[in-house]
Amino acid sequence: MTDEIPTHLATVARAAQVTPGVRRVTFTGSDLGTFASISPDQFVHLLLPPPGRDELTVDRDFTWVGHYLMPDEDKPVGAYYTVRHHRPEQCELDLDFVLHHDPGPASAFALRAAPGDPVALWGPRTAFTPADDVDWYLLVADETGLPATAAILEDLHGRFDGPVVVLVEVAGPEEHQPLAVGPNVEVTWLHRGDRPAGTTTQLVDAVRALDLPGGRPYVWGGGESRAMTGIRRHLRRGVGYARDDVSLTPYWRHAAHPEEPDEDEEADGRVEAAAVER
Q1: Which strands make up the sheet holding 217-224, listed edge to edge?
Q2: Which phi and psi (to 5°) does residue 3 adopt?
Q3: Cα–Cα distance measured from residue 131 to residue 214, given in angstroms and rounded to the nearest whole number
Q4: Fewer Cβ in 10 A, N or C end of the chain?
Q5: What is the DSSP string of 151-212?
Q6: Measured between alpha carbons, how far is 69 from 262 in angstroms, rounded to an integer?
Q7: How far apart are the C-alpha atoms of 143 and 254, rounded to whole Å?
Q8: Is 252 helix (H, G, I), strand (E, B) or coil?
Q9: Are 81 and 22 in contact (CB under 8 A)?
Q10: Model's pTM, two decimal places?
Q11: What is the radius of gyration, based on Cα positions, of the chain?
Q12: In 3-state terms, what secondary structure has residue 231?
């Protein structure tokens, strides 16, 4: 039940640029010392003050039912974000924001975030649920899924020695980020250059071109809706992977792409993040 998911209050501690297109905001507060991490890809819904206001209009008792009943002018704004780092001993948590030329409320917040700015974090939740007998992993992402990809690789590092295949689409080399890799990890960066995010088929094409290892896979991905749908259809229908072995979540949807029904899409609790800024 989503009503049982906690809401944590925090404030901005600091912000820093990770790459030209990604800004990391660190949050602090006593609530974050008791934040219960559940998975390397854990995500929260960032709740911000309504437009034009400086104070939060929600508290620790926040629910989505309550949100629905609030007057529109009091409703917080925000979006889903992956927890990049959680340091409970320091009561700190990091979220990475992809910056946009036409920023929505969350990326605009990241650009101007200042110490003391109040937020609420609803979560965590997860879409990363591999079986115990996985033989190899495939991770696919664009910039929005890169924080979770990095966290998953850190979690696997040193404890999983099977093949790990990683495909990440970014604008160019300037958007690369350090990843925890070992001899069993193969990372391929796909550069789209000047083409806008969400307008290429690079991720789908790269997955189709893979020489897939044998054994039981676990496929995790996060990125633009059409790319995730195309990869899912290929792996589920074309290759024949089981539903439980594929978790591909549409983090966002390009404005030019209509919403497409996909009977293979898992109801993993995160699909509502599609078409929401990340």
Answers
A1: 185-191, 164-170, 136-141, 217-224, 246-252
A2: -65, -20
A3: 16
A4: N
A5: HHHHHHTTT--S-EEEEEEESSGGG-------TTEEEEEEE-TTSPTTS--HHHHHHHT---
A6: 30
A7: 14
A8: strand
A9: no
A10: 0.93
A11: 18
A12: helix
Q: Is the pLDDT of residue 84 over 60?
A: yes
Return left, alpha or beta for 87; rule: phi > 0 is left, psi -120 to 50 is alpha, else beta: beta
The 8-class DSSP code of residue 234 comes to I
What does each C-alpha distance from 35 to 45, 56, 57 come to in angstroms? Answer: 14, 19, 21
d(C-alpha 249, C-alpha 271), whole Å? 6
Write the pLDDT tens digit of every residue in 112-155: 999 999 999 999 999 999 999 999 999 999 999 999 999 999 99
Domain ranges of the chain: 2-125, 136-273
**What is the distance between the alpha carbons of residues 223 and 207, in angstroms, rounded to a whole number?**
14
> In the structure encoding, which two tokens stand for residue 155, read together?
């979690």
Question: Which DSSP category does 57 fall into?
Answer: S
The topology (CATH level 3) of 136-273 is: Rossmann fold (3.40.50)
Cα four-point dihedral sign 53, 96, 278, 156: negative
**pLDDT per residue as tens digits for the range 183-216:** 999 999 999 999 999 999 999 999 999 999 999 9
Residues in the chain: 278
The pLDDT, as a whole number, for residue 257 is: 65
Neighbours of 240 (CB within 10 A): 7
Output phi, psi for 106, to 5 deg: -75, -45
- Tell whether domain 2-125 is in CATH 2.102.10.10: no
Alpha carbon distances (Å) from 214 to 71, 211, 243, 247 = 54, 9, 17, 18
